Amino acid sequence: MTDCIFCKIVSGEIPSYTVYEDDVVKAFLDISQGTPGHTLVVPKKHVPDLFAYDEKLAAEVFSRLPKIARAVKASNPAIKGMNVINNNGKVAYQSVFHSHIHLIPRYSDQDDFKMIFKDNSGKYDEAKYKQIQQSIIDHMDDDND
Ligand code: AMP
Ligand code: ZN
After folding, report:
1. pLDDT digit string (tens) for 90-127?
2. Domain extents for the chain?
3. Is any ligand 1 atom within 6 A of the Cβ of residue 65?
4. Residue 46 Cα, ligand 2 centroid: separation in angstroms?
5. Is the CB of residue 5 below 6 angstroms from any atom belonging to ligand 1?
6. Ligand 1: does its nearest atom lie under 6 Å from the Cβ of 71?
7. Which of the residues 8, 17, 69, 81 could staple to 13 if both were Cys, CB 3.0 to 4.6 A apart?
8. For residue 7, which ligand has an atom nearest its CA?
């Protein structure tokens, strides 16, 4: 895609601090360095978000993550854990619309990364869980229609 910043990074038109590259993905330092070592893994093929992956591309891209994550973790003994995040849609904080996976090394609960999961279970009863469950199940085979 001509006007896509990550396509330009993939092609080398825009420089990046690349840490891994093969025929399927390129991994490079996120310019923001949310925590030190913050790395992005992007498919070389332009896909806007997770919803646009087919099974083959997903298998190819996501199977690369453990190897890259292990190398990032091994790069610094102070790294104790890692958040792996994939934002899809503006409402979900996606700002670059060429799919990418964030590898965010974690150093302590006082480092610069925060994520909040609110526990709303008190607002749900069995009927409500089941209605949501069924609604998702009903759409599981949409791909094959
Ligand atoms: P997201 O908000 O999930 O779409 O993440 C996009 C990420 O791309 C942000 O964390 C940016 O810091 C990062 N980013 C944007 N431009 C560049 C660039 N030229 N090189 C490296 N990272 C970039
Ligand atoms: Zn692109």
Report:
1. 999 999 999 999 999 999 999 999 999 999 999 999 99
2. 5-111
3. no
4. 4
5. yes
6. no
7. 8
8. 2
List, by residue number, the catalytic residues. 100
Give 128 Cα–ligand 2 centroid separation in angstroms: 39
d(C-alpha 89, C-alpha 96), whole Å? 9
The per-residue pLDDT of the chain, averaged, comes to 97
For the domain spanning 5-111, the CATH number is 3.30.428.10
